[in-house]
Model the fold of this input.
Amino acid sequence: MEARDLPGHLRPVPDSGDSTAPALEPTDLPVEEITAPLEEAERPVEDPARPVEETPAAPGEEPAASVPAPETAGEGPEPTPLVPGTTPGLTAPRSRARSTGFVTDVLVELGFASEERAQQAIEEARTAGRPPEHLLLEQGAISAEQLSKAVAERYGLDHVDLQLFQVDMAAANLISVSSARRYGALPVAFVDKATLLVATADPTNLLALDDIKMATGFDSNVAVTSTEDIEALIGRLNTLQSAVSEAITEDEEAAAEEEAALAEVSDMEVSAEDAPVVKLVYSILGQSVAEGASDVHFEPDEGEMRVRFRVDGVLREAAKVPKRMVTAVVSRIKIMSDLNIAEKRVPQDGRVSVTIDDRRVDLRVTTLPTQRGEGATIRILDKENAQRSLDDLGMDGSGKRRFEEAFRKAYGAVLVTGPTGSGKSTTLYAALQSLNEVDKNIITIEDPVEYRLEGINQINVNRKAGLDFATGLRSILRADPDIVMVGEVRDGETARIAIEAALTGHMMLTTLHTNDAPGAIARLTKMGIEAFLTASAVDCVVAQRLARKLCTHCKQRAILPPEALAEAGIRVGVEIEAYVPTGCPRCTSTGYRGRVGIYSVMQMTERLKEMTVQGAHEAELTSVAREEGMATLREDGVEKVRAGLTSLEEVLRVTA
Done:
């Protein structure tokens, strides 16, 4: 079948076309799109030939954002044509004609699945009542990206990778978020003055495609993408759509905004509630969660406020907030976390739970009065992180076996060491999840409680009320616990109570700030704990770091010569195969996406206990521990380099 014979809703993208709206780089932060109009002196000029239109929304839906109609040809910058194979993220099928086979046949032809595996899925689908390709996806036999490519080939359509494709927000905002979620489809670009490129995971949903055509007034060419990419794009629109539409009119109220920045404190709550600053703050939070940030920093400067995200342990600038909105932004953050907006002289701490893109996230807020003004830092606590297993964290092999053997004992002490931000609490949470059963009473005392876990009694330190680690731990031991977790041992009193509790029939999990596992023994000695108590109570010490994971989409294979390894202090004697970071739009050109743990697990054997009682030095304990099977942090890191999880440079950075 020729391309012209395809139905209107399945027309492929032409080899060349005229885009009538500027495309946005996928790495451009939507937050900057919001704040940019606030800094301009002029209001955007709209085409008088085509007025701004609002898409009518069905009852109960969110209205679509008002978007200026596309400019006519010849106005504005020359658009970039959409050419499959040339436009990043847009790929043409091998043939524009429809395939006569099934999607599973195409999966086999493309080499994504074996014929035996596809046939097995077909047999299972007869009783499961579901398409066999969906079963293959659920079972991990194929990825969502491979399925979308096979569907595109099956129907002779273009495939669009929304992680690489430059999505045109003007096109995407033509339909409401609720409509896009219901259709499972979304316009992503203008093909020409009368045609949209619509991305969908299901090109056979003719009703959805027809509804988009009626709602937008444009014809549509269809490209296939993965369900994951569609949901991610809808999530971005969900946090930004209403903020974008309201920010367009903000310039008309520039004078009023200046007055609001100088308003009395008593009026600030009202102004912050009504102004677009509310949507700006929510957009920043939504974007930070979408990018996997652990912290958001609002830092006032002489003029603007700088917003930075900490992603995978590394800070990067995300946006700038105009000077006239700085006070309102901080006030809004205070209102969210139930802090005193009138108090700007001392730091304040608060907490709030919000729902972002159907995910419940806890925010821990700290305000700081700096010389340049009041700033704020938000720690993002995603409950999904607390539900990760040791395998998910990267602990494997003999280290995982030793750690599990230790914390599953009836009593004793297990210590996790490392600097701040190395994931110690997350490791202990993973252990608690394994131990969390109805026949065990688990109590924790933390400063503060980071993740709220079902079935576990958690206590928050409150020094103003006289509740510190030592006081709380004494009370916990009178509450008949089986397992106790102490967020951190900071002083000799807490350390003594914890060690004595481990000797009297309780399993004690806690953290220390030391550089390596053997250093924990010396630290306890310096805290005043007798060596014989340490040797009797401590069963296992884990040292850990967090290294950034290589982006699976752009990492490149490489050979690391022995000379380079020797210079890094790693003596293996032979070259090793590994991967190096490259950078792509999916990882914001960093080469890394996500983090993996690097662990050194020291099990307190009889020999190590004897040496502890004798007062052996830390270096001697390290030497014997390595003889008895302990891998150092750098050795575990090199194993993860061999496995392609991280790079040698990253291991050297975190284990220096």
